[in-house]
Amino acid sequence: MNELQETARKLLSDGTVNVVIGYESGPRGVRAAFITAPEQADKLIFDTRCVQNLATYLNPRRTQITRLGKAAVVVKGCDARAVAGVIREKQIERANVVILAMRCGGVLQHPESDTPLNADTVSVRCANCKVREPKLFDYLLGELPPEPPVNTLRIEQIAALEKMTPSERWNFWSGQLSRCIRCHACREACPMCFCVKCTAEKSQPQWIDPSSTLQANRAWQTMRVLHQAGRCVDCLECERACPEHIPLSLLVGYVAEAVERRFDYVASDDPSVPAPFGVYRTDDDEEFIR
Amino acid sequence: MTHKFLSHQELASLIGQLLAAKTRVIAPVRAKDDSSQLEYQPIQSPDDATFGVRLPRRSLKEFFLPPTEVLLHYKQTKAGVEIREVPTEVPPQVIFGAVPCDAAGLAAVDKVMNWDYRDELWFGRREATTIVSFLCNTMDATCFCTAVGLGPESSTGSDALFVPVEDGYLAYLVTPKGEALLQNHGTEATATMLADAETSQREARAKVEPNLAAIPVEFATWLASNFDHPVWKTLALRCHGCGACAAMCPTCHCFDIVDEHISADEGVRRRNWDSCQTGLFTVHSSGHNPRASQSERFRQRIQHKFSIYPSRFGEILCTGCGRCSRGCPGGMDLPSIVGELVALAQAKPEAGGQ
Fold this sequence. Notes:
Chain A has about 290 residues and is α/β, with parallel strands linked by helices. Chain A has helices at about 5-15, 65, 75-90, 155-165, 165-175, 185-190, 215-225, 235-240, 250-265; strands at about 20-25, 30-35, 70-75, 95-100, 140. Chain A contains nine helices and five strands; from the N terminus they run αββαβαββαααααα.
């Protein structure tokens, strides 16, 4: 039994946690596993197909999971930032989650393909990874793999968007967002979308029309991405969930770049570091507010 | 069922003639954003169509029940409220290259659309449309059409079914609409063609059948009497409740109706796709939600498709296309979930929950 399985088994056996949220082999590649008995711990795996950000399952509104009891969660360094996010924003308490952090050398863009990791198959979010060894953890597990290959596709796409004139960019996004069907799968799959009542669902007043018209779709995604500024951990779960294949990671990635440039802040894996959205500083850059 | 042979050239010329007569023709085309994917789109030329490569990523549902559509316009005047309804008659259109499961999905939804209320918008489009399905040969491990009473050769919901044979297609003419479409096209099929077509249909079925055994009729009864079975508590832990499955599903047809203002005294009433997988779907005005967690919401999805709909309309509300599973960001897999539940049902044939 490997280190991850052994740790999970111990945590379940000694009653430290009631459920370990990790990855297992499923009918279509790897999927989330909810291990509640020590003898099931050998189901747990961790490899390059473990793309999904399991921090989404820590949302306290997911009562089908919270009623299982205290959870341990398997995270990659990038996912740990989402765990830090939900702790920072007081959704869960640090003491109420056990973090099993895996050293990671990159994951696949299309995990169902089960191909070797190379520059063509690696996830675009692994480019320039600085968290191969997670910093937020209770248990740090696995060997440190070499640096992941670099897939520059998204970096190039964001650079191309930045080069566009505002009207070109508007047209690009109008074309993409005309496909949005307002199912809100992007929101549900997002670890940082945990509002009790989303503005998209407020009807008194109706801030955003619920119909999937282009105007309403733009309003919805604009609101979502602005609300994600400095909060988004760039896990791409929104894009993975989108049944219409809208490149949402470009939208959040673009805003994340702006936050880094303006506020010198990248979504932190330290829950005690405040995010720009949650602080007011007199020396904040206000040059762009006119 | 009558049949004809249609060569590749004759199919192209039939599509060409329809387009020349300004008939809207819909067929699978390469997706603009990802050429490895297909989607049903109106075509401008017979060459635009790509037949038999893979399952289009979305079903035909959106051509009959769009994600959003206007039901009526309203305007408040001094004399009262002016209501302008939308026309329910639509010009004829022809779909070539439907996968049989997508055509069957429409036929299943017809039942509820003509239940306590006849949905004129749905039937306006259904009646204006001729559907030509092609024998499916693009199945993968997630397909389970044969388990829900269909198959890659199913003609349910199709007006004609084309089965590839040498140099063209053997066209089975299923309905008068299908016969009318091919009235002036095609030649008599030979015995060899018929035999070849039957072989390919058998072979296609054999590729899907191992994925999931046929769902027994008693499954619906078992579901109905096992509403409180403990399996529901843990079945949907990984489900996000995002509803992407419902958006992809050829048979999910729930909608929400909203009024949207255009100006202070004018607006439109729209209906929009909705899904029982979201919390908002069942929340009462009091704030109480009878389906409080994803466990209950996912149970609803299974119960509706495999028990409620069959008991009301005599058929399963699932075509086994597998889109819900392929598109699920949480790794929910319907064929294995249904397989697990059927096994439970068969292990305990006596009715009654726990």
